[in-house]
Design a protein that fits this description.
The complex is a heterodimer of chains A (about 525) and B (about 425).
Chain A: E1 2-4, H1 14-40, H2 47-68, H3 76-103, H4 105-128, H5 150-168, H6 174-179, H7 181-188, H8 194-216, H9 221-247, H10 273-306, H11 309-312, H12 317-323, H13 337-366, H14 375-395, H15 400-403, H16 407-411, H17 414-425, E2 429-433, H18 443-446, H19 454-458, H20 474-478, E3 484-488
Antiparallel strand pairs in A: 2-3
Helix pairs in contact in A: 1-2, 2-4, 3-4, 4-8, 5-14, 8-9, 9-12, 13-14, 13-17
Chain B: E1 2-6, H1 10-22, E2 26-31, H2 43-47, H3 63-66, E3 69-73, E4 76-80, E5 85-88, E6 93-95, E7 98-101, E8 105-107, E9 120-121, H4 126-136, E10 141-145, H5 149-160, E11 164-169, H6 181-193, E12 196-200, E13 204-209, E14 215-220, E15 225-227, E16 230-233, E17 237-239, H7 242-246, E18 255-257, E19 268-270, E20 275-277, H8 291-305, E21 318-323, E22 326-332, E23 342-349, E24 352-359, E25 365-371, H9 377-385, H10 394-400, H11 411-417
Parallel strand pairs in B: 1-2, 1-7, 2-3, 7-19, 9-16, 10-11, 10-16, 11-12, 18-20
Antiparallel strand pairs in B: 4-5, 5-6, 8-17, 13-14, 14-15, 21-22, 22-25, 23-24, 24-25
Helix pairs in contact in B: 1-8, 10-11
Classes of the chains: A mainly alpha (about 525), B alpha/beta (about 425).
């Protein structure tokens, strides 16, 4: 009677091995490629640079490999060693900024960004390897770093400060930028500017903290696949590919961002299209075509079938950051009804503004400035300053330790507004509640990065269909009673029913779909 | 019309909510435990740092004034049935037209030596959570008495704080009156994997205390002495009937009620953990002490008080739990092992298990258990209520599973195991 079959392996130990094997293999492949490139001297950079880079990758691979060995139990040595290495890296970055980065860029790259990357990866491996095979949010609400304690405030101030410098005082970070020079030469064939440095740091944050997410949520396959997606999109489409485009003197185009989030991709003249066409020629035409297709054709189709999550928590770089670096801060999202009200006004307001601004620019361009003159240029600049810099950057990421991870996505992103409207009114996506099993514990609401009071719906047995839901699936992952499930299904009856708990469980049998 | 509800647990609050849906009466909820309704189910998450205390409130604070539900934090000392009034500890007297007792239950103590010492407690209320915080501060080892759902929760809480835990279980296997040997074994593995010392077939004999009446060790029935600074009592609960009894309301083990929640006193109702049905419900239960049944009873009473007529009936049984990382869903009636009338089928792989029970003579499904697998209630319930055949097709299995997307399962194999 008792039969043992192949495991469904979604909670079992072996899955972590598979995951780590893949990461290690990927790292080693890239390292090998770099070594080949170095040996053949086929790109315009010094062989030593790529050898060094390959060494970093091999080091990371080795760290992971060691950590995945189930016989390996992280000791005090590992916890301390990782902390010291990370600390060293942070000091290295400060020293770089102070000037050492300009004098010895290569050395300081390793002592700064390199050591920080290695140290944090090690730290993560030591923290999560030895854990159990289930969810571990223990201490999130009591740890000062993750719950607005003194260290949390310090971290927030440093992150916000970094954004302020990057946007308005990049010269202050010259030393750090210079340490990425060798890599910039390697990838782009030209010296690093502060945006390259920023891009690198951003991508490393996504990758390293992505590894953390892979560890932490390793028992849920939806989470591991989704995390892989955001890591790879960020690394390949938003970092490596744009760099290679620059190397081949093409426009630095990001294939993973579309209008209206990346508003300039559909703005006329020097704001966007004109610049891409001028620099890109035929490639530029393809880029414009790609962007327009994604905005107007792919977006509605994908959102209809899968909800806004296909973009917000699987592709988008802002989402990538929120889901990885931001994961320890997701519970800080404001979650009152008032914040929901504010959110709806603001995000739709921004959508109206960006549509008006786009229309304005096109009218201005079509009439060759006869109608609005210099006014449209001022509008374009103002939008970029307020929404591109202050909101998406300084507040959007810098404020993680204060207000959680999706401030920009909830209150500012016009792309999220469009996707959200469609998700609410015309999509197959919903979060289903499992009958009357909810125990009102509140884990779902507490860990919703969009500040949705998921419990409100779950404890009534009601489907969750909300414009803001990015479908990260964490509510389902943290639910201790298996109550929530992300599903795509028929649009009929998706919104209001069935409210199982507030009726009677007896009514359950009358659901036609389960006959 | 003034309706006073004593107790703001899930039964009392559900009563108030469903009463408000159909009535404009003045409603007052009195609780000694907390100013607002809290999810007692989540106490453990606050202790483990997964949740903030404020996360335990299922409703925002303005929910109560919006729905005109008056909240009072106080203890009711006496019910004057003749006068239709209650006395409050803080002084004062409150008139009621209808009184609802939703006073819940209390952790059991069986007369052990030292059972009221410092560091010995159950886990039921916010106050218990606070005292557990204090009692476990900086300690190295603890004992938890009781092989039920709360016992395992307390063990998990203590392990998260890296406290050594001895778990004393009376039965030879964990909940062997409910689980098959395979199921118990999965849970044993889970308990041990988290570093808990599991003592099966072992009961508490006495608690040793020091000169300051603090627990320092427990003595087991097998003669062992285990040094512990904290003793968690999780050997069940009993209805909290003190107020009802001293006010002259008829009680048995619980406050005796009809299937419309009426007590022996006119205008006084009792609901939830504290109540005992005079006539046993279907399945033979007289006292229902599940959180889910508290919610259902409250909902039924709320509707009755708002003018409804539907008496209480127990639902098709369902329950859920989480044993450390192992989730558990159950629907219908699944006996621990096969009987003359019941045949069981099981699929097991690693830490995942599904077991169905069927009527031997007809093959109709009676119930299903899932361990490490999420099962969809609508599907399980409809299969059982419609008396469908227990053999499960792969297509039916896909609707039955509630696992997150991308889960890997060979549904053909599972269906085969559950059909042969």
């Amino acid at each position: 009677m008792t039969t043992t079959h192949r495991s469904i392996s979604l909670v079992d130990g072996p899955l972590i091995d598979v995951t780590i094997n893949r990461i290690v293999a990927a790292l080693l492949v890239v390292a090998a490629l770099l070594s080949v490139v170095a040996a053949l001297q086929i790109w315009p950079f010094k062989p030593t640079t790529s050898i060094a880079l390959a060494a970093l990758l091999v080091f990371s691979a080795a760290t992971l490999w060691v950590s995945k060995n189930s016989a390996w139990h992280p000791t005090r040595f590992h916890h301390k060693g990782a902390a010291i290495l990370t600390g060293l890296g942070l000091v290295g970055m400060l020293v770089s900024i102070a000037g050492a980065g300009i004098a010895w860029p290569m050395l300081m790259f390793w002592l700064g960004i390199g050591a920080t990357t290695a140290g944090t990866t090690w730290m993560i491996a030591a923290r999560y390897t030895d854990g159990a095979h289930g969810l571990d949010n223990h201490g999130t609400m009591t740890n000062p770093v993750t719950n607005r304690g003194a260290s949390g405030w310090m971290l927030g101030i440093v992150m916000t400060g970094f954004y302020v410098l990057i946007y308005w005082y990049p010269a202050a970070l010259e030393g750090l930028t210079k340490t990425t020079d060798p890599l910039s030469w390697l990838m782009r064939g030209k010296a690093a500017d502060h945006w390259f440095m920023y891009s690198l740091v951003y991508s490393l944050a996504v990758v390293v903290m992505g590894v953390r997410a892979l560890y932490k949520y390793r028992h849920v396959r939806y989470q591991t696949i989704r995390t892989w997606s955001v890591m790879l999109v960020q690394l390949l489409l938003a970092f490596i590919l744009p760099s290679i485009l620059v190397l081949f003197q093409q426009p630095e185009f990001y294939f993973s961002y579309f209008w209206p989030l990346k508003w300039t991709y559909l703005w006329p003249g020097d704001y966007g299209i004109g610049w891409i066409l001028a620099d890109g020629g035929r490639t530029g035409v393809f880029m414009i075509f790609w962007g327009a297709m994604m905005s107007f054709v792919a977006t509605p189709i994908l959102t209809y079938f899968y909800g806004k999550r296909w973009y917000c928590s699987w592709v988008c770089g802002c989402g990538a950051m929120a889901e990885t670096l931001g994961d320890p801060y997701r519970h800080l999202a404001p979650r009152s009804t008032d914040s929901w009200r504010l959110e709806r006004w603001m995000i739709h307001g921004v959508l109206v503004i960006i549509i008006l601004a786009t229309a304005l620019l096109w009218i201005n361009s079509a009439t060759e400035g006869a109608l609005f003159g210099g006014f449209s240029g001022a509008v374009a600049k103002t939008y970029g300053f307020i929404f591109g810099s202050i909101w998406a950057g300084v507040i959007g990421v810098g404020f993680y330790p204060f207000l959680g991870t999706r401030i920009w996505c909830r209150f500012g992103c016009p792309m999220a507004a469009i996707l959200g409207l469609q998700q609410r009114f015309f999509s197959r996506f919903r979060i289903t509640t499992n009958g009357a099993q909810c125990i009102s514990c509140g884990n779902c609401s507490a860990y919703c990065e969009m500040g949705i009071d998921v419990r409100w719906y779950a404890q009534r047995g009601q489907n969750i269909v909300r414009a803001s839901c990015v479908g990260c699936g964490i509510c389902s992952t943290v639910c201790p009673r298996g109550v929530l499930k992300l599903e795509n299904g028929p649009t009929e009856g998706r919104l209001n029913g069935p409210v199982l708990i507030d009726r009677d469980e007896v009514d359950l049998i009358d659901l036609p779909e389960y006959r | 019309m003034h309706i006073v509800i004593i107790g703001n647990g899930i039964a009392g609050v559900s009563t108030a909510r469903f009463l408000r849906k159909g009535s404009d009466a003045r409603i007052t909820i009195i609780s000694a435990e907390s100013p607002y309704h809290v999810a007692r189910t989540a106490l453990m998450y606050a202790y483990m740092g997964d949740l903030r205390p404020s996360d335990l409130k299922p409703y925002e604070d303005d929910f109560w004034p919006k729905n005109r539900l008056d909240l009072i934090q106080d203890t009711v000392t006496h019910v004057d049935i003749e006068a239709g009034a209650i006395n409050l500890l803080a002084g004062g007297r409150m008139h009621y037209d209808i009184l609802v007792l939703a006073t819940g239950s209390r952790p059991n103590r069986f007369g052990w030596k030292g059972e009221y010492a410092h560091g010995v407690q159950g886990l039921y209320s916010m106050q218990d959570l606070t005292s557990m915080e204090v009692a476990t501060e900086g300690i190295q080892s603890a004992a938890v008495i009781g092989g039920g759902l709360i016992g395992i929760e307390m063990a998990e809480m203590l392990r998260v704080r890296r406290i050594d835990v001895h778990l004393l279980v009376r039965e030879q296997a964990y909940m062997d009156y409910l689980f098959s040997a395979d199921e118990s074994e999965l849970i044993h593995q889970e308990i041990r994997r988290h570093g808990v010392q599991l003592h099966l077939g072992t009961e508490l004999d006495a608690i040793e205390t020091d000169s300051e009446d603090r627990a320092v060790a427990v003595h087991t029935t097998s003669g062992e002495r285990l040094a512990t600074r904290f003793v968690g009592l999780a050997v069940g609960v009993h209805p909290n009937v003190d107020l009802a009894r001293q006010s002259g309301i008829e009680t048995g083990k619980g406050i005796l009620i009809t299937n419309t929640f009426e007590t022996s006193a006119p205008g006084v109702y009792a609901v939830g953990d504290c109540a005992e049905f005079r006539e046993p419900l279907a399945h033979g239960r007289r006292i229902e002490q599940l959180w889910y049944s508290g919610r259902r009873q409250g909902r039924t009473l709320g509707r009755l008080l708002a003018g409804g007529t539907d008496a209480y009936s127990a639902p098709l049984f369902f329950n859920s739990a989480k044993f450390f990382d192992l989730e558990y869903h159950t629907y219908g009636d699944v006996p621990p092992h096969e009987t003359d009338e019941v045949v069981c089928r099981q699929w097991k792989a690693g830490r995942h298990l599904i077991r169905t029970a069927a009527e031997r003579s007809t093959g109709r499904i009676l119930g299903v258990n899932g361990l490490g697998v999420r099962l969809r209630q609508e599907v399980a319930a409809s299969m059982i209520r419609r008396g469908q055949d227990a053999a499960i097709t792969p297509a039916r299995l896909k609707t039955l599973l509630f696992e997150p997307e991308f889960f890997q399962a060979d549904t053909t194999q599972i269906a085969e195991a559950l059909s042969s």
